Amino acid sequence: MQLEEILSELENNTGKFPRLALERAIQEQEAITPLLLATLEESKNNLEDLLEEPDYLLHIYSLFLLAQFRESKSYPIIVDFFSTPGDISLDVTGDVVTEDLGRILASVSHGNLDPIKQLIENPAVNKFVRGAALKSLVILLVQKIISREQVVQYFEELFLSRLEKDNYHMWNKLVINSCDICAIELKEHIDRAFEEDLMERFFVNENNVNNSLEMGVEAALQKLHNKQHYTLINDTILEMESLNCFLADKPNKKDNSPISVKGFTLTLNKNKSQVDKKKKMQKESRRKNRSKKG
């Protein structure tokens, strides 16, 4: 299977999992990496065009393969991709952001934290992207790529000055991640955040915090180490082969409704006209918003 054929097999969802193409892509890591980087670069520069192609998946496969390859050259491209203001990076990647972006960032960062911090601290970046970037620091800690001291110190900086006060989502994530690593050193800052009503208690409350901080650092980190969501991307095939979007592997499924899957959300071809209409409306709305800002 030639490189062009591999990319062709991975380009669009056909309902069948492209196992052979992925196996060949992994075998041809050195040769295919520049093509995957070019795919991400092109996708980053044409996000609105991706909205018109709901079956296109090559950018998703590229994200996972490059993460598996630990390709450092993909790091700035991925950061730029997800730095786009608004929801468009989520629209074209679906659940990748909330499920696996933290793991992808951790896999390609090699401990270089500055780009991740830029995502976390940029108010223009989508809040779910920022939350995933925050989680990537914990993943790097769990995988022993960075130290706990580095994470605790940076979290303290976020508590003190680096987060806007009105972003409940980020304060929720900051407190939750602090508790996950049993950052007892930050208890004073967490208490102050509660006093100032910076979080939504539906997601985290004082009892949650106290129970987490009583666990102890070693036990807390071991608990995270046993969870897949705190691992690096090691096997693209294993990560993606169980996705429900590959209809040919599920012949008894006749429902043509949208399918939400781990990693991303796809819509079947029968609903393509509805998707196109929705994407067109979203695109027009963004144009109007840009005109108003201008």
Helix/strand class: mainly alpha
Helix content: 55-70%
Biggest β-sheet: strands ordered side by side in the sheet: 1-2
Compute the separation of the termini in Å: 49 Å
What's the pLDDT, averaged over the residues? 86
**Which outline best applies?**
elongated
Topology order in helix (H) and strand (E) letters: HHHHHHHHHHHHHHHHHEEH
Number of strands: 2
Q: How does this structure look, described?
A:
With 294 residues, this protein is mainly α. The protein is 62% helix and 1% strand. It is built from 18 helices and two strands. The protein has helices spanning 3-11, 19-27, 29-45, 47-51, 58-68, 74-83, 88-91, 96-99, 101-109, 114-121, 127-142, 148-162, 168-180, 187-195, 206-213, 217-225, 236-240, 272-293, and strands at residues 259-260, 265-266. It has a two-stranded antiparallel sheet. Strand 1 (259-260) and strand 2 (265-266) form a beta hairpin. Helix 5 crosses helix 9 (101-109). The longest helix is centred in the last third of the chain and has 22 residues, at 272-293. The radius of gyration is 20 Å and the shape is elongated.
Main attributes of the structure:
294 residues; two-stranded antiparallel ribbon; 18 helices
Task: Give a nutshell description of this structure.
This protein has 294 residues and is an all-alpha fold. Helix content is 62%, strand content 1%.
